[in-house]
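In the design runs reported in the main text, the only information available to the sequence generator was the tokenized backbone. The following block is the verbatim input for one such run; it is reproduced so that readers can re-run the procedure and compare outputs position by position.
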């Protein structure tokens, strides 16, 4: 019975790994996508103590025969390696040049973190303003956590390497408007989880994250060289590595399925003998 339970548990977790690999591969061309990996841990082992010689002198290992119970899914982590930079020369495209750096976006009353720099300007007829938005429609936020919005006659945007957004208008008599993007450094990617299309939110308490150094709002010289206008960061998914990992996982699934079949055959044989 324990063999069947162990193999079934392992098969379930391997299926979770296959789903994660498929998710990575499907986002190969997604701007600034960060590949994910599944974390596993051995399940609690059982000890079979009724064995001959379990109290022999000089034994170094614990008494009893250790029997595994498969593996458990410990979570999914985001791997934050920097993706390659592609020049587009499009004024609304930006690339963050340092890993673990995110800008803030708002969706309704909720704020998230993102690196997806394929931005655009969307006009909102309800209030008559243009908003700088991501490809998913989330509005970029400035250092006061307010969305960047511009008058209807917006002509062009200049985005500096420190994340300052300078808006100029078709009416040249109108003064330029400057916003500063909210930029955040998250040194522990394991504390964030993907929440929607290429946006992230914290798993735990934001105040505690700030206190233990997981979360830093970037200001002053710390922002220098962080943003490049007219460029996009590509995903950090390596198709060769993902394909290799997929093949290895498929082989593990096959061997685990055979173990389940073998355990089931053995149980049937035992039932036949008992009869």
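Verbatim output:
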């Amino acid at each position: 019975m324990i063999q069947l339970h162990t193999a079934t548990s392992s098969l379930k977790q391997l299926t979770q790994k296959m789903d994660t690999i498929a998710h990575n591969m499907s986002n190969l061309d997604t701007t600034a996508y960060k590949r994910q990996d599944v974390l596993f841990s051995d399940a609690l082992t059982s000890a079979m103590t009724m064995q001959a010689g379990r109290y022999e002198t000089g034994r170094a290992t614990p008494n009893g025969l250790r029997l595994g119970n498969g593996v458990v899914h410990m979570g999914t982590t985001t791997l934050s390696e920097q993706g390659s930079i592609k020049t587009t020369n499009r004024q609304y495209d930006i690339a963050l040049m340092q890993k673990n750096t995110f800008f803030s976006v708002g969706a309704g009353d909720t704020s998230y973190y993102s690196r997806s720099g394929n931005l655009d300007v969307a006009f909102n007829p309800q209030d008559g303003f243009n908003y700088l938005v991501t490809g998913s429609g989330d509005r970029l936020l400035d250092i006061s956590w307010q969305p960047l919005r511009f008058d209807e006659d917006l002509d062009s945007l200049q985005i500096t390497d420190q994340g300052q957004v300078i808006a100029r208008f078709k009416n040249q008599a109108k003064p330029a408007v400057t916003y500063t993007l909210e930029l955040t450094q998250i040194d522990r990617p394991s504390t964030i989880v993907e929440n929607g299309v290429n946006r992230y939110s914290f798993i735990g308490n934001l105040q505690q994250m700030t206190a233990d150094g997981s979360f830093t709002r970037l200001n002053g010289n710390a922002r220098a060289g962080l943003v490049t206008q007219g460029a996009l960061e590509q995903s950090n998914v390596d198709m060769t590595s993902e394909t290799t990992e997929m093949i290895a996982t498929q082989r593990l699934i096959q061997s685990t399925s055979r173990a389940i079949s073998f355990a089931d055959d053995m149980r049937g044989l035992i039932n036949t003998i008992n009869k």
